[in-house]
Design a protein that fits this description.
The protein folds into 2 domains: 69 residues, no CATH class; 210 residues, Alpha-Beta Complex (Spore Coat Polysaccharide Biosynthesis Protein SpsA, Chain A). It contains 6 helices and 19 strands. A 7-stranded mixed β-sheet has the order 9-8-7-10-15-12-16, sandwiched between helices. Strand 18 and strand 19 form a beta hairpin. The chain is globular and about 65 Å long.
Length: 289
Amino acid sequence: MLEIVYAEYGNKDVTSVLKSKVVNDKLIVGVNNSNFGDPKPGVVKTLLVKYVEDSEEKTMTLTEGEILILPFTKSSKLGIFYTNNRIPHQILTQSLNSIKKASEKHNVDIITSVWEHIPDNPFFEVMCPVRTGNHFNIAYQICQLLLTAQSSKRYETVSYLEHDVLYGEDYFDFEPFDGNVICNHNYMGICKQGFQNKGQGDEPLHQLTLKFDFAFSHFRNTLMESIVRGVNLEPLHSPAYLRREAKQPSIHINHGHHFTSHFNIYQKKYYPEHPYWGKADDIIKNCNL
């Protein structure tokens, strides 16, 4: 159980602000003037936090520009989820619930970029001020999340999580890898007719994990390029991706209103049930397809 006892930002009491940002006994917040106001203009401020975790009182101090994550984890794995909120809310909920289950099992930190607040989002939200609905927007949201996480200086990898994908509970169960990019090839689709196998071996962003430093460099460049021309989000000029097979397949939900691509690679043969995911009709109903 996480309890915020006292918090001070530049000698300003911000205890109530931090308490309001605790979601499901977890707190992720940027240490900045946007969240706490600016009690000392022109001065670099510190955030002092006193909190109780597992019946033990602890203290943490952070500098303006860093990110506060409580309970403190030693995870080197980060997952970033981005959405334009333009798909059925049920799909967003099912996707986030699957990510929550997987991240808790494998101790992965998750942050999200959204166009609109998701009331039942179990993770820290960053509101996206840019809303154009194209690859520039996705690159912007990804950079927004990478910048948010960068100050922690502890993440080695970042996995990309899209709003219309269900992730198996062992999706984050991968070992340290050489190179810059690893791709999970164990994924399928689902539509109103049932589960679908993929028809070609695409390596979509929603199944990629990148080394954090490489990801930051790649998407910073992608964002700049996308201002003037169309771009691929995947790092196509990287050396060949390493390949992995997650224990359970990810499920790409083919709902017809896509923020990203790769929705047309699935076979037209349909299956009513899957050993791990259960009956297709249940997912179809829960996702309002």
